[in-house]
Give the backbone structure.
Amino acid sequence: MVATGSQSERRSVRRVVGSVAGGLLLLALLSSCSVQDAFYFGWPKGGITPQSQRMFDLWIGSTVAALAVGVFVWGLIFWCIIRYRKRGDALPPQTRYNLPIELIYSVVPFLVIAVLFFYTAVNQTSVDKISANPQVTEAEAKQLVQWVLTQK
């Protein structure tokens, strides 16, 4: 009887320590950067051309999509950990296949990739379009590149 009590006490201590450690880690992560910097996700602030704004929108959109997929997957993982944890020595019921789930596993990633590919192709076409009356000539662009290289 004493061994069972000490095991449950150890589990409670581990849970408390784990919760405190997770809270401290979350606090450290959330306090490490300002809110203004956090929403750019590594993209340079402010663009000069309309193409840079479209690329920024694509970058933010794909980052938000990746975060949404990540949160969904982590939610499923934690739900499975909690819902299907081991409760005894009996094995859970074994199934051979589940056609609807297998179709979802195949179709949803394809749709996500197709949507990201579509927006990437649209933006790439916009960026690669050659203007008949460019705002910057080739000579000006070379001067700008030389100036940038000398600033580093």
